[in-house]
Specification:
about 55% strand
Length: about 260
């Protein structure tokens, strides 16, 4: 590891942490809490910053990069809650910019740029709750139709505000799968399909623009038996032969649309 920490109340600033020769991470916080890393450079082959059961830590104003040819992570949070990732620049050549898994709850990601070209910008899967993504700019140039600039799967009560998510190629700008109670507000989302909402419930989209770049696709696609969708004061742009909003026949519950374009 570039830096391994398992304690509390430490600060690291203006430093370089690197692991470019193996599978370890540049920064590894194992059960650590209240550690602040600022104005630093983290680089690794597979994982730049690995947080395992680590809480109340902050990484800010830092440059994060991973370069492995296989799947890699800028940030990996497993069972890690109440961490703050802010004002960072993250580049993942063949991986995920920020990956939250299991009971990684109440994390805040803000004022950052994320550039990835294979799997996804931000991915929440298998349990993260109460995540706040605010003022984040994501560019995703992946070639997989299953990737997205931002994806939330089997996760609940997460919020994305004031952010831009752009996916090129066959990928969606945003994908929700088995997600409950997602809130999207004041965002711009663009992809082959703007936003794909599958098998999800209680999604709220307000004051946002969701645009499809594929000729046949839609700004928002509600599918997989999704239910209880609210969309207000937003703009939905479909492809020339697509639609702004597509709601599959098996969708259920209250679907409320108001003051949209």
């Amino acid at each position: 590891y570039g830096l391994y920490a398992a304690g509390t109340l430490s600060a690291v600033s203006a430093s370089t942490m690197a692991n470019t020769a193996g599978l370890g991470s540049a920064l590894y916080l194992a059960g650590a809490s209240s550690i602040t890393v600022s104005q630093s450079f983290l680089t690794a082959l597979t994982t730049a910053a690995y947080l395992q059961n680590a809480s109340y830590n902050t990484v800010r104003q830092s440059s994060i990069s991973v370069s492995a040819a296989s799947q890699s992570y800028g940030f990996y949070l497993g069972g890690s809650s109440s961490n703050t990732l802010t004002r960072n620049s993250i580049t993942a050549v063949n991986g995920v910019g920020i990956y939250l898994v299991a009971a990684s709850n109440y994390n805040r990601i803000s004022q950052s740029t994320i550039t990835v070209n294979k799997w996804g910008g931000i991915t929440l899967t298998s349990g993260p709750r109460y995540t706040l993504v605010d003022r984040v700019f994501i560019t995703f140039t992946g070639v997989s139709q299953f990737g997205s600039a931002l994806g939330m799967s089997t996760a609940d009560n997460n919020t994305v505000t004031n952010s831009t998510m752009i996916a090129y190629g066959p990928s969606s700008g945003m994908r929700l799968f088995h997600h409950s109670s997602a809130t999207i507000s004041n965002c711009y989302v663009q992809g082959s399909t703007g936003t794909d909402i599958a098998s999800s419930s209680y999604t709220s989209i307000t004051a946002s623009v969701l645009a499809a770049t594929n000729t046949f696709n839609t700004g928002v696609w509600l599918n997989g038996g999704s239910s209880d969708l609210t969309m207000t004061s937003s703009t939905f742009i479909g492809g020339p032969k697509g639609a702004g909003i597509a709601i599959d026949v098996n969708s259920a519950g209250a679907i409320a649309l108001a003051s949209n374009t």
